[in-house]
Inverse folding.
């Protein structure tokens, strides 16, 4: 399996956040920001339905939480772990936060911006690029989404 040994553990924390999103009818996507010491410093889950905020994506909320806890916007020593490949907005937010490493569960062939539809996080025109490690606990992440969307189709 690609990535570091702790990536599967950290994806478990992100999956816990994704499952918590189900309670509010939100799409089950979860994210955590892991600091340089391996501790979770930020958590987020989709909350668009809960809050009515179109920017309340798991990644954005996790980045905000980490920035608040660490007292800085530059998260250049942290890893973002998310259950689904980030969209354009979240990929852009990750670049702006100077995240050096992104670990993702399931790829998003329809709206992913980290290698599927677009590759914002590695665009050479930007001043920062992110290492992407995909497919960590991919089946669990994808199954959670499939289960959520099946009755909606």
């Amino acid at each position: 399996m690609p990535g570091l040994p702790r990536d599967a553990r950290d994806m478990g924390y992100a999956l816990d956040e994704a499952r918590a999103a189900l309670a509010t009818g939100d799409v089950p996507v979860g994210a955590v920001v892991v600091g340089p010491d391996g501790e979770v410093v930020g958590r987020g889950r989709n909350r668009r339905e809960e809050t009515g905020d179109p920017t309340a994506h798991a990644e954005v909320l996790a980045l905000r939480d980490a920035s608040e806890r660490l007292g800085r916007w530059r998260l250049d020593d942290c890893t973002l772990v998310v259950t689904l490949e980030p969209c354009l907005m979240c990929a852009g937010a990750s670049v702006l936060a100077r995240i050096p490493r992104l670990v993702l569960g399931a790829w998003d062939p329809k709206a992913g911006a980290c290698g599927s539809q677009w590759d914002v996080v590695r665009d050479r025109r930007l001043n920062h690029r992110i290492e992407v490690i995909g497919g960590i606990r991919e089946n669990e992440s994808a199954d959670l989404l499939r289960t959520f969307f099946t009755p909606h189709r």
In short: The longest strand covers residues 40-45. The radius of gyration is 14 Å. The mean pLDDT is 96. The CA atoms of residues 123 and 129 lie 7 Å apart.
